[in-house]
Amino acid sequence: MTKKAGPLFYVFLALFVFFVMFPFLWVLLSSVKPLSELFGDKAFNWLTSHPTLKSYISVFVNYPFLRYLWNSTVVATVTTVYTVFVAAFAAYAIARLEFKGKTVILGLVLAVSMFPQIATLSPIYMFVKKFGLTNSYLGLIIPYTTFALPLSIWLLVTFFRKIPFDLEEAAKMDGATPMQTYFKIILPLAVPGVFTTSILVFIAAWNEFLFALTINTAETYKTVPVGIAMFQGQYTIPWGEISAATVVVTIPLVIMVLLFQRRIVSGLTSGSVKE
Amino acid sequence: MRNEKRMERLLGYSLVAPAMLLILAIAIWPVIQSFYYSLFDYRLNDPTKSSIHWSYSLDLEGYLQNYPFLKSALKQEMAAADGQTKQTLAQIEQKLAKLDAAIRSNDQVARQYDKVNEVLDNFETPSDELKIAELDKQTAERLTDTVHDVVRALKEMKKAGELQQADKVVGLAEGLEGVVIEPNFVGLKHYKDSFSDMRLWKALWNTTFFTVVSVAIELVLGLGIALLINKAFFGRGLVRATILIPWAIPTAVSALMWKFLYDGQNGIVAHYFETIGLVDRMGDLLTTEAGAMFAVIFADVWKTTPYMALLLLAGLQTIPHSLYEAASIDGATKWQQFTQITLPLLKSSILVALLFRTLDAFRVFDLIYVLTGGGPANSTETISILAYKVMFSQTNFGAGSALAVVVFLCVAIISMIYIKWLGKDLLSDSASVKR
Question: Class of B192-434 per CATH?
Fold first, then answer.
């Protein structure tokens, strides 16, 4: 950590950041271009002399984009709350209690998190179709359990394990039941971990594409990723609107990432690094 | 003390139970079902194959919407005809009546028969369970044969101009042709067909190529970036946030963004690639086979290298700095330090990152579906894309499920190889060690 960063380092860093951000930058610049400058000679100009918000207005007026945003919010929020709730109990037991078969259960959780979605798609599709759940929120929330629950359990187990065992021992000495220990000692200490897990599960559910594409095909139930991907028409692709929509969905993400970057990184790397 | 242990165990199992039941029901059961589906000729757009049948059965709705009307139509024709025609018609009528009696000879079928009739009389639609009656093989074959004969005979009579309402009669008879539902169990036929089809091998090759190349590039770049930013510098948090953004945005949205940048006429990245000579013409990026594969890999590298870098950075930060100090005192060069300290100590981080990334890349769907749709000429069609197309574009659920099972098996094999390398590290119960 004592290595000093020289000027050359900052040049590399700036280049790297530029490459990573370039697509966003270009999409942002394109989103304010008038239609005529998106095509032809002016397509490669960085800046437009006639900035306009037409594309943004069109996204909300000509497409049910608000509806997509709402659908994604509902589906991702409910998925997150319910899976993290169920996972918290399981993760507590796996991390803190002594019983046979824990390693097998954790192995199973990890294995399921590696399942390719396509392998569960046809039975799940038949299931939601049979129960009339296509084009409904529940029709996505149920299948999203397949990836959200293993992810939550896996992350929460690592967070629960980090809580010092002494506290629990002390509570036990004082005669607290395991349930009391859980609610009074573990849970308050686990709040940051639960929060991090929730962010990651929320992002995973928000970004999901395959189930959303097959199950919710009606315009009123599409989620953001599917909605934007389906902007492309048969012959023309409305790049202006697509750019504007991309900017609209990216800005909240940028804010979230800036606010919670430490937590997200700790969540992403937990379980992969042995400390 | 023993009692307490038992209580703890019981509590443990009951806390884990809800999550396990959900995982069993929503993740593991569907995989088993996928395999089960793959053994059938299961098609959504074909009413006789839109569910799984082990045995012969009869679509009573179709049967009763035709047979009674055919019967009365035949009677009318008989009344109007004479001589040879009348006799033939009578024979046909009798044949069908005998067949009807045979169908009704089974009590269970007869009960369903009457119920469906009642429902149809009320101009309602019978439920699927009610309208499908199980049939023994003999009757089913007899029904098929008889209907076949009847249709042929009626068509001949129609040609000869012996019928008054020829179209109606023939139409009703033909309506009986689809009422027998044959068992659609095909065993491993879908697997045999898939593996003898070049398209599957091409998709497997595309998937493997995409996975190996993109993960290798991501590893090298990610390691480089992790080493670069593994130090204190100004704006560290901001850089970390920046590299999280590509990871955080939906893959489908980033794929669309790249489609814009790669566009053959207006895409800025395509334009720059042409300028620096990476491609001959802008349009080549998405319209040639090599160009499309390159475009897909480039977009994937852009999106997931930051994730790789973060995982490796976390690994780097666990290496004690004192090791490097000791090494440099002993006169080890930077390169020696890298190969002797960094790489060995980073091994498990690298393997874990590789495992996650390899599996993700192998399952790739969103990126390719949106960016190229598998084209041009299936050159970027991965196995997940192929399975999806077979299932939902060709509505062939049986064959699609077989492909999905192939993806599953590949993923299982890849994980097993990695887990073997990783040893038990991944699952080690550090909690009990600390106790």
Answer: mainly alpha
